[in-house]
Design brief:
The protein has eleven helices and eleven strands. The chain is α/β, with parallel strands linked by helices. The strands form two sheets. The protein has a six-stranded mixed β-sheet. Helix 2 packs parallel to helix 3. It comes from Mailhella massiliensis.
């Protein structure tokens, strides 16, 4: 398949019209390679993933995160220059679908909302419009809020999430605020780092917001503003499952979707690695806990 046609198909699901103004989605490293037969897909354009793609015989790489968010000099050796070396030495183009993928409410970014079967969804932060597969013009944006099929407690919701998120292995990053026995009906979800949407999730009436990278003081300030100083007020609960878990699965599902659409192109998903390591070693050293 021609590289230009492959990019056109990628942008059907991750349209550039939805890109945030601060983002740099699209072509990251250009190549004159016209025909693409093997596409590698992964979350991060780190050297080990790019090398794995090259070793697998891929002649194009699609990542979620951009190679860089701003121009960078190549005056020293680091992960950025090593990534460039791998790509240029093999003449492999690199394309990133970052906020363009995040902001499509009908795409893989909605995977957890789909699994939870949320209905009556509303977008938390609108970023633009795009043309849906059925030809209609739709609004896009980050995150969504919707209703569960039936109310459940926070603890029951966490148990339900175990089928989709490795919560047991995420003890280094998974955090929950709120009473686990509290009943929740309306859930907000944002893949990746959704801490900037705390106010929007609360305004959408969410009982719990599932996202990553929530800062302590942001959560504290939100709860203080919501409660108005009332000790009896129960603010929106937060479930911070880390940045990696939500976007790794989103990227995997994007690879599966592209495999269906790209005739004559092999699509390989390269699993990533969460930079936060589970603290399972603590259970192996009992004296540390005594």
């Amino acid at each position: 398949m021609l590289q230009s046609e492959l990019i056109r198909i990628i942008e059907q699901t991750a349209p550039l019209s939805l890109m945030a103004e601060w983002d740099h989605s699209g072509v990251q490293v250009a190549s004159g390679r016209e025909v693409i037969r093997h596409l590698a897909v992964c979350l991060d354009p780190v050297p080990e993933q790019l090398q794995a793609a090259a070793d697998a015989g891929a002649d194009m790489v699609l990542t979620h995160h951009p190679l860089t968010m701003r121009p960078a000099f190549t005056d020293r050796r680091n992960g950025y220059t090593e990534a460039l070396r791998i790509l240029y030495s093999r003449d492999i183009p690199l394309y990133a679908s970052h906020t363009t993928l995040d902001a499509n409410p009908m795409g893989p970014s909605a995977w957890l909302a789909d699994e939870l079967r949320l209905t009556g969804r509303v977008i938390l932060e609108k970023t633009g419009v795009f043309t849906a597969p059925d030809g209609t013009v739709r609004e896009g944006g980050f995150g969504c809020a919707g209703e569960l099929p039936a109310p459940m407690s926070l603890s029951e919701l966490c148990l339900a999430l175990r089928a989709h998120l490795p919560l047991e292995r995420m003890c280094a990053v998974a955090r929950l605020t709120g009473d686990p026995s509290r009943l929740v009906r309306r859930v907000a979800v944002c893949t990746g780092s959704g801490s900037s949407l705390l106010e929007e999730a609360a305004a959408a009436g969410a009982d719990v917001f599932i996202t990553g990278d929530v800062k302590y003081h942001d959560a504290l300030a939100l709860h203080s503003r919501q409660s108005g100083g009332s000790p009896d007020f129960c603010p929106m609960a937060l479930l911070d499952v880390g940045h990696f878990s939500l976007e790794e699965e989103m990227t995997r599902r994007f690879a599966l979707l592209l495999q269906e659409k790209l005739e004559g192109v092999t699509v390989t998903f390269l699993p990533g690695r969460d930079p936060f390591l589970p603290m399972t070693f603590l259970s192996e050293v009992p004296e540390v806990l005594s």
